[in-house]
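Listing S7. Sequence submitted for prediction.
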Amino acid sequence: MEPISTHDGLVYPLAKRNVDTDQIIPKQFLKRIERSGFGQFLFYNWRFDEKEQPRQDFTLNQPKYNGASVLVAGDNFGCGSSREHAPWALLDYGFKVIIAPSFADIFYNNTTKNGILAIKLPEEKVDYLLDQAEKNAYMLTINLEKQVIYDKLGFEASFDIPSYNKHMLLNGLDEIGITLSYADQITHFEQTHN
């Protein structure tokens, strides 16, 4: 995983509540066993019509959001089933940061394990970000070390993150990587406790 310290990114606004994991990546695309290649199926039923052509009425298909890496969404993002494919699809598409008033617990944990920074902000601050991103090409800076988000218009907000999650993201570690960081101690224990 890539470490995240500071991220500057174009914001994509998804002003929907209760976006579930089947909307993030529909079940018919869960047949792969590797983590890559899921981005093309992100929000598939919203992005494409029945002839698999891009829907012009879905905002992520608009050129002004090309290259967006910060997703701002409504309350309860990632609800539904606990599929890990949802963060895989978001990351593979290019999203590094997701901001919402709340997340489903399993989805929130899966984002960290897969290198995505999920940030909870009060609804009024999320509404401000959604409004700015709907009007213009809107950039945000996220500083994980200082736990602050800001733009060039004067907006600033601090956010909380569990220290374990922060450590994982700052160092680009998943749970296997954290375990491997204790390899010397594990080897020592195995050698001395036979």
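Caption to Listing S7: primary sequence and predicted structure tokens for the chain studied. The longest strand covers residues 6-14. The chain has one domain: 6-192.
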